[in-house]
Structures are given as structure tokens and as C-alpha cells.
Structure prediction request, 210 residues.
Amino acid sequence: VTLRKNANALARERAATWRGYEWAGVGIGDRQGRFWGVPHRNKGSFEANLIDFFSNRKRISAFNLTEESLEKYHRMLLKFQPKYLYGYVSVLEVFANYIRDNNLGLIPSLVSIITTSEVLNPIARGTISSAFGVRVFNEYGCGELGSIAHECRHGSMHLMSDNLIVETLSGEATGELVATDLFNYAQPIIRYRLGDFATLSDDLCDCGVS
Prediction:
């Protein structure tokens, strides 16, 4: 599926993402270890490498998780000294278990880890946090809409409500989520069914973000 976005919508989406990352203690330009897909075609690989270079990040294949590759990733990250790791929950959990099982040292440059794309359950959160010695922050989003919610230091998931309207399909507090992008005029997305279920709350968080 090809989705068109106007420049203002993209700018707002990226600003919301970096605001969420700031809650995890990182900012634009900080070094990132990215556990993600790696394109196999030459053109895609070149573009990904170029983006990674300018984004100050090292991309680590989420689909090559042998013991040899995991050991190489650990050495690479020690040398690169990222400020944070970002990626799929399941892949970061595999890497965390490898580090713990092999008694490998911490990556001292890390201040936090941001997980995305999969459910962050308490077991995975604990495994990842203990292996790397830093706090784990959760991100919720999708390619069509970008950042939808980010976790703050008090553990609450805050909606990016300045960019999106997020509701439940039923209108009740708990239900299937639908979202409307307020600024993508190139291809409007209205009450888009995300396929996820959640409970929405009006409670105020101690961090001060509504």
C-alpha cells in the first residue's frame, strides 16, 4: 500500500516522535542502535545506509540472530557507543537473553531502550531492562499514522493528541482503536481501524502531560 503524506503532516509526525524520545532521555542526533529490517536489494540497501548515516545510527538485522551475529552486534555496539537502542520487542529480548546467558558486559553509553511494533509484556520489559541496565520505554504507532502514543517516565502511555484523534470503535473506554490524522490532507485517514484493542483514560499523569 502506498500512502501519500503532505510535508506538514510528516513534520508533525516526526516532531511527535522526537518528543516521545525526549521522555526517554534522548534527543535528535543521539547515537542509536536500531534492531530493524535490512533491505536486500542494492537500491534499498544504499538508501537505508544513507539514512542511517545521516541519522547517526547503526542498523542491526532483526532477521539474523545466530550466536555469531549476536556476538558481533555486541562488539559493534560497544565500539559505536549508542545512547539508546530501538527496535522490535522480541529481537531486543533475544539479544538481552544472549548477553545475560553469556555474561557479557553492559553497554555503558546507553541511557534507555525504546521498544516498538510488538506488545511489551512485563517479562520482556524485565529481561531487556536487567540485561542492559537501563529503563525500557514503550512506543505505539503504525506506518500509516506515525507515532500514536509514547511512554513517559511515570509509566503512562500518552497519546499524540495534537496530531491525532484516537477513539474506540464502540465509543466505550475499552475497545478496538480507530484513529484520525488531523493534518494529512494529501490522503486523509479518518477513523482508521488499527486492529488493536486498548483502554483509554482521562486520568492525569504525575509527569504533567495530559
